[in-house]
Every structure is written in structure tokens, then in C-alpha cells.
Amino acid sequence: MKASERSEVFFFPYDTGRAFLRGLKALFSSIAAVVSEGDSVAVKVHMGEYGGSTYLRPPLVRRVCDLIKEAGARPFVTDTTTLYPGRRFTARQYLATAAFNGFTEESMGVPIIIADGEQGYDGEWVDIPGRVSDCSLDKVKVASEILNADSMIVLTHVKGHPVAGFGGSIKNVAMGCVTKESKAAQHRVNRGLIALSKCTGCGQCVEACLFGCMSLHEEKMARDEEKCMNCNRCLYLCPEDVFSLPPRAKERLQVYLAHSAAGALSRFHSKVAFINFVQDVTPLCDCVAPSGLPVVPDIGILASTDVVAIDRASLDLIGQSKPVGKFAGISSPDILGKLNGTDSLVQMRAAQELGLGNMEYELKERRQ
Ligand code: SF4
Ligand code: SF4
Fold first, then answer.
1. For 302-315, what is each residue's pLDDT tens digit?
2. Which of 89, 186, 205, 214 has most ligand 2 atoms within 8 Å of its beta carbon, as the pocket-test mutant?
3. What stretch of H or E contains 272?
4. What is the DSSP letter of 25?
């Protein structure tokens, strides 16, 4: 594609109701060429945190799986374990949480496979093609089952994120298609700074760190910098605010996300497409439960083969909508970034610079 050309983003608006069965059929036909008959197709989806309720509803995912099967391919629903301790930290825990949230082999009609194995370390290192800005990543460890698929359809619930601002397809691929090592490497830029004078030695962080990196010395916390996986559980739980994010952490994480996505997507060439669901647009992401009240009314579904264009179009549609409830009156073309204290376009600019896609797009309605 020439740089001057705009990428196509197909759009099914929810303006006449949420007729998602029809909408997904119309959109899928626009991107179906990425799937060949007989392909094993990774359907990448965040199946929700325990206690969350705004993750993608199971029927949306089931519909896409059925459409892929009708195209003669073999889909499986997939995601990876989390870096932070909780109810999706291992594959077994994740499958139990997925079942609680309505995702089972029976409800999906296809297998559900946690792509990075039981503990979250199964994968292969892939070179990241190119480097922009001050990113130190040159490789990413892509989860085995995703790496081994013939093609991938990425289903993303669009919402906010406390660090990235906007959580769309770039974020879903960057953090969700890789193993724990690569999640930790991306979050390295968020490792909390320490104000030791505030520490009361309560020991909560020592108990909470599942990687055994925290200890107490003379009634003050001590972090093993070699072993720390940057999950930031300690940062969020410390009652004394001992930890704080480093300067520019939010913007730097976005640049790292773009690099990780570039590595993970390099595996698929033209065999990947993205579907963004702009509904239940909460300020926080699906890993946070609860993730807050909707910021704007539900907007619709988008599909594209360009990961940058689809995220940019989703962000723009949110920016053009009138905020609701307690968000009414907030005016910003990037309300999710504003609510989370960053500029969400950083990730899209970095991804464009890395050659992942185009911020210029043409929105094409597909209703039938
Ligand atoms: S949780 Fe906070 S106050 Fe308690 S030991 Fe850890 S750093 Fe110190
Ligand atoms: S020290 Fe904190 S950030 Fe590092 S792994 Fe432990 S809980 Fe996570």
C-alpha cells in the first residue's frame, strides 16, 4: 500500500439496534479473504476477568467462530495467561474463569486453548521488524498456539486502559499474544519507583508478590530487581503509596506495545484481520473488575485488515460521540486517554512508524 492511500475500515453501526448476527456476517465477508479453507484459525479474545461484566459477550465470539467454520476453516478460541496474579494466572485458572464468564467448548462450538501453556511461558522468540523511539525490545516471545496457527482473527472489546489510555487491537495483540516473559519486558517501563521513607514495613507486598521478589529488611521493603516481573501488583496494593509510575511511563508503554504487536503480527503477513467492538466503552480495561460505567453509548462493530486504521477509527468514533452519565460534559477527541492521563495516539503513531498500518482510513458502512 502506498503511504498516501487510506486503509479500509468496515463499520456496522448500532444505530438501529444491536443486530450483531447480521452485522458480523456483513463485516466478516469484507475480511474473510485472510482465512483459507482448511486453515487453523486463532480467534484471539480476552474472555474477561472474574467479576467483570463488560468483556465481549460469548455470542459475539461464537458468531465469528461459526462464520469461520462456514468458510471451511478450523477456528479455536484463544488467549494467554496474565502476568499479574489472580484468576487467569495459569491456564487452568483461566479456563475456570472463562467457563464462569460463559466461554466453554460447548458454548463456542470450538476448542478453547490457552496459547502460552499452563504456566504462561510456552512460546518462541520472534524478531521485531524495526525499532522506533526509545524502545529496547528487539524480540518478542509469541505464545505457541498462536504462533502455530495458519491465520488469526483478533476480536477486541474497545475500552480504556489505566496505562495505555485506549485499549484496542494493538494492545490486544501486543500483550495478549505473548508469554509472561514478553509481558514483563513490555511492563519494564512501568516498574514502580520507590519512596522508601513512606514504607511502614506492613509486609503486604511480600505476601502478594507471586514471583518471590519482595522481602523485608529492617522493617522496610526490598525488591529483587533481577527477579521482578513488573506485574505492579505491589504498586496497586501498597496502602502507603510507596510506589509510583516513572515519568512518561504511559507513553513509553504504548511505544513498547506497538513493537510487541509488530513482532507478533510479523508471523501472519496477510493472514490476519481485526474486529473491534465499540460497546460497553468503560474507562478501564477488562482485566480490572469492575471496570467502570460506560463513557459513551454503544457505537457498533468495525473490521479491517489494518490494525492501526481500525484502532484510529474506533478512537475517532468514540471522540465524535456524546459522553454519558458522569462523563457528560467532558469534551475530548481522546476521552479514554484523557480519563487515564495520557495521549492514546502514541501507540498508533508508533505502530504506523513500524509499518503495521495506516492512521489514514476510509470508513465504509456495511449493513448487509
Ligand atoms: S505494602 Fe507498602 S508499606 Fe507495606 S511493606 Fe510493602 S511497600 Fe512497605
Ligand atoms: S515486586 Fe511487585 S512488580 Fe515485581 S513481580 Fe513482585 S509484585 Fe510484581
1. 999 999 999 999 99
2. 214
3. strand 272-278
4. H
